[in-house]
Amino acid sequence: MSKVEDWYYITVRDRIFKVRQSPAYLEFDGVSKEFLMYYFALDEPYSTILTQINKDPHINSAIKRYYGLRIIRQDPWECLISFLCSSAANIPKITLNLEMLSRAFGKKIELNEFEQYSFPNPGELNNYEQILLAKTGFRAKYIKIANSLVSEDFLKSLRKLSYGEAKQTLRNIPGIGDKIADCILLFSLGFTEAFPIDTWMKKILQKLYFKNKVISNKELSAFGAKYFGKYAGYAQQFLYIFARNSMAA
DNA sequence: AGACAGGGGTAGG
DNA sequence: CCTACCCCTGTC
């Protein structure tokens, strides 16, 4: 997304919409209300979720501080490619990769005066050299393969599976391990029980719940699922943003 | 200025 | 469990 004046312009595949929060309303243009509700997951029972994950004073303070934090339902294909770009990278670099991929493979689109390149569809990221030119490095081969393996139907079919089955199916794609699979499931496919463990989650969980002892990612993952339950992904997001803003490296 | 480390991981040893 | 992997960026 890009902020222009007080509007946020958000690109989803080949369309752009814009939103801004006024005190009492969410204002938007370019999409239907139904799409907006879906995209920002405004149909979720927010207060019930917060009650369910509020297990102790640590997460309680994270929830208090970041109240209003939501988990969007991003386009799954965009999400998958974005997270393939994310390994051993950082936000500015991932943003650069995605912009360059869109510029190379997408087409120019606009809303009002705002111009952007669309995100290529599954099957359209079919030129390895171009993917490499987007500065994706060792991730280029994963993007190329994912492009040939993944279709809209494949992504759709994941929704019908259990969390465990869907995760295993995603893990069969080269470049997708536990963390990236969980991110795709949580941020685009509505699997709220997914609990991605990255370096920040590892740090904060060890600190808050394991007396600073080193714990394997596998064990941390099991802890998250058991301790926070069906909406563990929301707990993950509150703890994650809390960790990033309080343990800043 | 140029070298160096490390970043929202994964695969392969 | 350890390390290389591409590339960008911040630091010394």
UniProtKB/TrEMBL annotation:
Pfam families: OGG_N. Residues 85-244 form the HhH-GPD domain. GO terms for biological process: base-excision repair; nucleotide-excision repair. The keyword Signal does not apply. It comes from the Bacteria. Keywords: DNA damage, DNA repair, Glycosidase, Hydrolase, Lyase, Multifunctional enzyme. One of its GO terms (molecular function) is damaged DNA binding. It catalyses: 2'-deoxyribonucleotide-(2'-deoxyribose 5'-phosphate)-2'-deoxyribonucleotide-DNA = a 3'-end 2'-deoxyribonucleotide-(2,3-dehydro-2,3-deoxyribose 5'-phosphate)-DNA + a 5'-end 5'-phospho-2'-deoxyribonucleoside-DNA + H(+). Its EC number is 4.2.99.18. SUPFAM superfamilies: DNA-glycosylase (SSF48150), TATA-box binding protein-like (SSF55945). Belongs to the type-1 OGG1 family. This is DNA-(apurinic or apyrimidinic site) lyase. It comes from Candidatus Jettenia caeni.
